[in-house]
Specification:
Blueprint lengths: L1 E6 L2 E10 L2 E6 L2 E10 L2 E6 L4 E9 L2 E6 L2 E8 L1 H6 L11 E3 L4 E6 L6 E2 L4 E7 L2 E6 L4 E6 L6 E2 L4 E7 L3
Antiparallel strand pairs: 1-2, 1-8, 2-3, 3-4, 4-5, 5-6, 6-7, 7-8, 9-16, 10-12, 10-15, 11-14, 12-13, 14-16
């Protein structure tokens, strides 16, 4: 999974790949193998050399606050594929059909059919590679159809939610 971490107005490319029972994480040119165990907002992060840290994580949309070793940082995590999916070449919202970008599992459905949503409203929580991501509405509109339910596994390209364009 390729992401961008924005911190102090700098964009850092991030790649996360499954590696045995853990993950291979690349931050810019730096690579590390980590193991992550989650209990609510607290995570146990173990590096390949055995060093272990407790990390407190709070998320609001794309904004993440991480507390580690008595220091807190705020980072914006951007999924470049979700930006491409929700925009046409002229910069306007392209489509209200939200699809899975990779195989995964639906953790939660956050909306109901007929609900009014704005661009950026959370629609479903999607788990892939043991990471949960909130999939957001690409446009303002109304929920026209929900094609998935919590616990369901889906393939790449599967229809998740249809948002019908219109005023909210």
């Amino acid at each position: 999974m390729k992401l961008i971490a924005r911190h102090d107005e700098k964009d850092i490319p991030v790649t996360v790949e499954r590696h045995g029972s853990g993950y291979l994480v690349k931050l810019g040119e730096r690579s590390m193998i980590i193991d992550l165990v989650t209990a609510g907002h607290v995570h146990s992060l173990r590096l390949e050399d055995g060093t272990q840290f407790a990390v407190v994580h709070h998320r609001s949309g794309n904004e993440h606050e991480l507390s580690l070793l008595g220091r807190s940082i705020r980072v914006e995590i951007i999924d470049p594929l979700s930006l491409k999916r929700g925009r046409s070449e002229d910069g306007m919202a392209a489509s209200g059909m939200v699809t899975a970008l990779m195989p995964g599992r639906i953790v939660r459905v956050l909306v109901a059919k007929g609900a009014a949503v704005q661009r950026g409203t959370g629609l479903v929580v999607f788990e892939a590679m043991k990471m949960e991501n909130e999939i957001q509405s690409p446009i303002d509109g109304t929920i026209g159809e929900i094609f998935v339910e919590a616990g369901q596994t889906v393939d790449s390209g599967a229809a998740l939610v249809l948002v019908t364009a219109g005023e909210v």
